[in-house]
Design brief:
Layout: H1 2-19, H2 36-42, H3 46-55, H4 57-60, H5 75-89, H6 100-115, H7 122-125, H8 135-156
Length: about 160
């Protein structure tokens, strides 16, 4: 039985070492203006823009600021999966590709997730203390969402 355990341990070690050389693609963009469309379209206050930057953009845009531990597999794979999943739900960098109806719906989801305490994820706030939102900060984001949604809803109304 001991030989089998040793073989399994060696195999796992080889796989772990091999994973260090094959990392997932990083979520980075050369476009320094990747959020310009979103910012100019939704006009968040400086406070809300900072909150979005600290709590949302790493997983919901085309530019992630990676922590040092992202260089260690399997953490790098886990983070890549979270980012891909987050961008699949909402990507602020792709805001200009959304229709007015979709923008309204995405903002509605932002408010729901923040009010429900589902976002930002606990796994994210454990290592990014600045992403922990106070009740006042949550309310500021929700208020901004409500005000911004009005512009999309008015654009959707038939004349």
């Amino acid at each position: 039985m001991t030989k089998i355990v040793k073989k399994i341990a060696v195999l796992l070690l080889v796989v772990f070492i091999g994973m260090q050389f094959y990392r997932p693609e990083k979520n980075t963009t050369e476009d320094a203006n990747h959020l310009t469309s979103f910012i100019s379209d939704t006009k968040p206050s400086e406070e809300v823009e900072l909150l979005l930057q600290q709590s949302c953009y790493d997983c919901h845009s085309n530019q992630t600021i990676y922590p040092w531990y992202n260089n260690i597999a399997p953490v790098s794979y886990w983070l890549a999966d979270h980012i891909d999943h987050g961008k699949g739900h909402l990507n602020f960098s792709e805001w200009d590709t959304y229709t007015a109806k979709k923008k309204d719906h995405k903002l509605e989801e932002v408010a729901e997730m923040i009010e429900g305490g589902e976002m930002p994820l606990n796994e994210y706030t454990w290592t990014h203390a600045e992403a922990n939102l106070t009740d006042a900060q949550k309310q500021a984001i929700v208020q901004w969402v409500q005000n911004t949604r009005k512009q999309y809803q008015s654009a959707l109304k038939p004349e």
